[in-house]
Design a protein that fits this description.
Radius of gyration: 20 Å
Largest sheet: 10 strands, antiparallel
Strand content: over 45%
Helix content: 10-25%
Number of strands: 14
Number of helices: 4
Shape: globular
Length: 240
């Protein structure tokens, strides 16, 4: 049975080692219909053998080096059926004006997964951007220099609870969110988000239900109100 690897351990293993890229090859060819599922492959490099996970997208094939991404290597060491686990992984491309980035979904239990974000060039870190969550979408800033990654956790008795991660694509950094008008936070899966919008290239606004707290009772009452009132919280960014 697969088990969750604690997030604190994963964070210590997230960085790629050395100067080689985590995504070591992009083949701009259309993969065969029979090769859509990700597979574990092995390549001989001089006297060493190196393992990669190969993903087939619509118009390219991506190889992710396990050696350069310790988090994946350690995770796969802890599962009993690597082939089955790898087949369930999903790689999504997020296209921006300057370059594409790639979001890897893995370690899923009951539709909640962990997510690694990859930059396709040399000497870049792979970031663990979410754990025990579901990717709900991405929103690029107007000039496409930043991207909001939206994640959710599902609750049977109330609306999904959400959070976001903001990435500076030009400098490849995760950004901290600042809200100067309130000490309360709606992040970290505490509130359901109704909408996420960019105000400009350096700030966003998130709409949430206008209630005291997101309890099942208050959320049910709010949903029963036509055009229920909302609150818009504005966030600006700083580099971590």
């Amino acid at each position: 049975m697969m088990k969750w690897i604690p997030l604190v351990i994963l964070l210590l293993l997230t960085g790629c080692s050395g100067s080689a890229p985590a995504i070591i090859e992009k083949i701009d060819t259309v993969p065969d219909e029979t090769e859509k599922e990700p597979v574990l492959i092995e390549q001989q490099e001089e006297e060493e053998s190196e393992e990669f996970i190969e993903f087939s997208l619509e118009d390219e094939q991506i190889l992710i080096s396990l050696k350069m991404v310790p988090i994946l290597n350690e995770y796969l060491k802890g599962v009993s059926n690597r082939k089955q686990v790898i087949n369930k992984m999903h790689l999504e491309r997020i296209s921006a004006e300057s370059h594409d980035i790639y979001l890897l979904e893995f370690s899923c239990v009951h539709d909640l997964c962990s997510y690694l974000l990859f930059h396709p060039t040399n000497e870049k870190l792979a970031y663990l951007v979410a754990d025990i969550a579901k990717f709900s979408g991405s929103i690029l800033s107007p000039n496409e220099s930043k991207v909001v990654l939206h994640f959710s956790r599902f609750h049977a008795s109330i609306s999904n609870l959400d959070t976001i991660v903001v990435v500076d694509l030009d400098n490849w950094k995760l950004l901290s969110l600042n809200n100067e008008k309130s000490n309360d936070t709606i992040l970290n899966y505490r509130w359901p988000f109704l909408s996420i919008d960019w105000l400009d290239n350096d700030s966003i606004t998130i709409a949430t239900p206008d209630i005291i707290e997101p309890t099942p009772e208050l959320l049910t009452e709010w949903h029963e109100i036509e055009d229920g009132p909302t609150i818009h919280t504005i966030f600006s960014f700083t580099s971590d």
